[in-house]
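Page 37, top half.
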Amino acid sequence: MFSCHLERSRETIFSALLLKNLPSKIVNQQSEIILSKFQFKQFSLEQDRCAMKIGTDGVLLGAWTPIENHPFSILDIGTGTGIIALILAQRSLASQIDAVEIDAEAYEQATDNFENSPWNDRLFCFHAGLDEFVEEPEEEYDLIVSNPPFYSENYKSNNEQRDLARFQDAMPFEDLIEAAALLLSENGIFSVIIPFKEEPTFLALAKENELFPLKITRVKGTPTSEMKRSLLAFSRTKLESFPIDELIIETPRHMYTAEYIELTKDFYLKM
């Protein structure tokens, strides 16, 4: 997302898990939190200057995104802390990983997180809005990822920075998809995580821009909870068929599923 801000109460840390059905134990088990720092297996992140905290969505997108096209260049739109870009730096051999972030505090934080990572020679963050970034495109990207703002309800908080990170009018899906269609290389992949209920709308908008589904995974917290998220990957090639599957985070006994462990074990400390 666009940004992230640490609040230390148990309640607000729990709210960082955007899949609301997940129990608070996930916060304690998935990563070691030392004040404002999240420690993963190969890198750490500071998040105290950002409006939106590190949550399950960003880790899922970074870990799930297809990289079978062996991307040379990657773009993370609305990078926030830089979590998705950093996971992709760990997973891929891409020599150019760019990120764009509109919020000044989050931009500075992402830049610091990039510089302090093992892949600081491959990561760069631009301080710009998406509209500015696409005005004079100089690059095409083999992989474009985004965990976009998605709240469309007609309410806002008194925190302008947090609203910028959370609400869809800060970066409408239409603008994101148009930017991806403009910046994606011929054989590139565009990957997002969005609310499950928004999936039909997003697929229709992508089709209008000649971006077609490559893979879809629908996510829910437990076997009995409702579907919460859709992980969507697109390419410029229209496929007759493509994989559609489901990811369940944990069982009713608060045990992570084998599929979730397999997806995230390279990143979370205690997986």
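Page 37, bottom half:
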Amino acid sequence: MLLRRLDLPYETTKLMRFIKELSKQPQTDLFQQDTSWNTNPRSGPVPLPPGRDRGRLKTTIIGGGAAGFFLAINLKEMVPEMEVCIVERSSRVLRKVELSGGGRCNLTNTFDDVNDLSTVYPRGHRLLKRLFKGFGHQDTCDWFERHGVSLMTQPDHRVFPASQDSHTIIDCFMKEAQRLGVRVVTHSERYEAPTFTAVCTGGSPKREGLKWLEDMGHEIVDPVPSLFTLNIDNKALRSLMGTAVENVTAYIPGHKYRSDGALLITHWGLSGPAILKLSSHEARTLHDNNYRLPLCINWVGVGDVRDELQHIIYNNPQKQLHNYRPFDLPQRLWDYLLTQMFKGDTNRTWKSLNAKEINRMANMLTNDEYQITGKGAFKEEFVTCGGIALKSINPSTLESRHVPGMYFAGEVLDIDGITGGFNFQAAWTTAHTVACAIKERVREKK
């Protein structure tokens, strides 16, 4: 078994003394550091007195998630003599990998439809543009296939294991970690602190979870939720639950960002890719307004529909409004919109519409406004924006600017993406970047 449990006391003040002394020492002395650590879920890793065995190369990875395992495996492959230990404070590792993509693990995206990274990474796109040159989505696909995982790509460009089972990825990681001799420990377990430390703890829902890193000098961007559904207190709309609409545009009035894609009406409000993308790009705006803001929906994804409506009137003058759906809208949605526009008088013909009514219909189709009353949950993703500010790290190596020998990978950084495999790709890329950086440090010291 890879997992062993050892409980230790929490000693927060010793961490600060250790970090203070470590940061004073020159880079060449980093390889002489040898300290025992444990994990405190409130204040982070805590040092204990130095051990006797010096001179070994050791890396401790704090966090047993996607980034942590990917970093450990790549580092052991690059530097076989390195002792690598993954420490996870909870009882289970790779939990998010197991649940992602509805249990199928959407591990990356082909990026075929992505012309600007900022559209899929609201935060961190500039850094990732640099890092993707060293390890991008195709490198990810090659890596998994090289390690025995067959992949499949959906028409929407999302990439999954061919088995459609996230346990294929988990089994791959666990098998490779065991084969390479990576130690994996859980709970508040004792482990030897290292030549290098990699923080891969994932996103923290509250700033307090990052305080131990802030106390070391790192700037923290307040974490707030990202990727969530929206609550809409409108019974008539919610009565359409289960209705999916293709190619809508959702936006918050007065804001530039427009989110395109499919939309799903639920029993609590709105969901679907268009809403999830909007929640990601507008995460801070929504949070700062306590998730109480107006929301506009363009049901047809077209700016000016008046010409199309005039065309319908000219070609179908005698048809009743409810019998001819413009833009192939779902019948239930069209009936609902007609009821909102004409208060139930839906038996009118198209030719009976006057200019004012055509304008009202055009506005309803392209600028239908609702009131957001809260946020829901998107159970396939657990994403926060915020974390370690990117100005606190070296953009080429992801090493801390405040603590030599400490690196960051994954969602603990102020990097997050929309749904579709983009967050996992950021995890693979940042983890691989750190592994390469540590390998170069080792090579330089030889």
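Margin note: Residues 93 and 181 are 17 Å apart (CA to CA).
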